[in-house]
């Protein structure tokens, strides 16, 4: 009977998963999670403009908008409802009324197993969570409100508890956090959007429990030894 093979169209490399020597039970889960994280990393700046690929979404994926400050906002569940709610989510923070034209600047991406008070781990989720800090410009010139995201290196000042002010006009940009949780198959199970203020300085005091996304992916490549899985291949080049 032929072994099962997984194909990653990004590099046309085949990887066998059929019980090779030394393979640990969690290896396949790490491979799937690594693949999802790479796809997600590529899509993050445009996540409010275009939908995420369906294959990385769990069928029961849920979206939670500002659960700390706006507990009255409903939680949506399911792939179709998630995609629609995420696309219109800028209305919830009343900063970017031009829906569908919101590009984000990604400030940081961290993988952590540390429990987060503003995003409790959902049933069925693996311990690894991806926490993304991002900002969306409040500029009203150029491509319209939300049409261009303020870069953290473009002369804007960034601090915990404050947004980022655009260079011209002094409009205050919205700075937020995404928290992604994943199921055992590496698919996105839960997506929480929260303000930086409510998230607080969550990275302080957790030390080695927080790892940069690229470092985590590179670590996965090293764990695979001489034959990295397609999810990690090419990251070390």
From TrEMBL:
Segments of skewed composition (Low complexity): 148-161
Pfam families: MMU163
Annotated segments matching region Disordered: 1-30, 143-166
Superkingdom of this protein's organism: Eukaryota
Name of this chain's protein: Uncharacterized protein
Organism: Glomerella acutata
């Amino acid at each position: 009977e032929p072994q099962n093979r997984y194909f990653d169209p990004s590099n046309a490399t085949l990887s066998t998963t059929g019980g090779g020597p030394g393979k640990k039970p969690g290896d396949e889960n790490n491979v799937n999670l690594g693949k999802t994280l790479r796809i997600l990393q590529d899509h993050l700046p445009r996540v409010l403009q275009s939908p995420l690929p369906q294959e990385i979404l769990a069928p029961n994926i849920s979206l939670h908008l500002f659960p700390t400050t706006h507990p009255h906002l409903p939680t949506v569940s399911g792939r179709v409802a998630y995609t629609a709610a995420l696309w219109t989510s800028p209305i919830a923070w009343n900063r970017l009324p031009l829906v569908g034209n919101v590009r984000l600047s990604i400030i940081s991406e961290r993988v952590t197993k540390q429990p987060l008070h503003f995003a409790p781990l959902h049933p069925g989720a693996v311990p690894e969570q991806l926490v993304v800090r991002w900002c969306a410009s409040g500029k009203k010139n150029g491509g319209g409100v939300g049409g261009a995201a303020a870069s953290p290196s473009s002369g804007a000042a960034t601090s915990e508890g404050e947004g980022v002010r655009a260079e011209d006009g002094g409009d205050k940009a919205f700075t937020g956090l995404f928290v992604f949780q994943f199921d055992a198959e590496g698919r996105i199970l839960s997506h929480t959007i929260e303000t930086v203020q409510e998230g607080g300085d969550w990275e302080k005091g957790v030390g080695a429990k927080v790892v940069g996304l690229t470092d985590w992916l590179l670590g996965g490549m090293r764990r695979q030894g001489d034959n990295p899985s397609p999810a990690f291949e090419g990251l070390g080049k």
